Amino acid sequence: MIDASDIERAAMRQCLKAFGEAAGAIGFAKPLGDYSEAEALRVIDAIVTGYTDAMAAHHEASKYPPVRGMRPAPDPLAHPFADLEDDLPWEEPKGAKP
């Protein structure tokens, strides 16, 4: 990765445990050039999954917008009219007696 940010470097460091576990299951004594395709894919999967999980966790924790300078997007699971008052003319106001 060219010119990785601090966040990306932290995500890379978080991949080390998954990489170590995958490489340990294959055997540390086995040279990388002797890995079968399945073994190489297991290591790649461990690294990529660890990296994407770390980046997703950072995004969720920071809630930065996907593009710098943009306003954060509203929560898609929030009720779209939650900030509106109940002022429907055909309904009685809350707490009012008929």
What does this structure look like?
This protein has 98 residues and is an all-alpha fold. The protein has a domain at 6-62. The protein is built from two helices and no strands. It has helices at 6-26, 37-62. The protein is elongated. The chain starts with 5 loop residues before the first helix and ends in a 36-residue tail after the last helix. The mean pLDDT is 82.
List keywords for this structure.
98 residues, mainly alpha, 48% helix
- How would a textbook summarize the main sheet? none
Terminal CA distance: 68 Å
Tally of individual helices: 2
Q: Strand percentage, roughly?
A: under 5%
H and E order: HH
Structural class, judged by helices and strands? Answer: mainly alpha
- Please state the oligomeric state of the protein chains shown: single chain
The value of Rg in angstroms is 25 Å
Helical content stands at: 40-55%
Uncertain residue segments: none
Q: Got a strand count?
A: 0
- Shape annotation: elongated
Task: Round the mean pLDDT to the nearest integer and report it.
Answer: 82
Structure at a glance:
The protein is an all-alpha fold and 98 residues long.
SSE map:
Layout: H1 6-26, H2 37-62
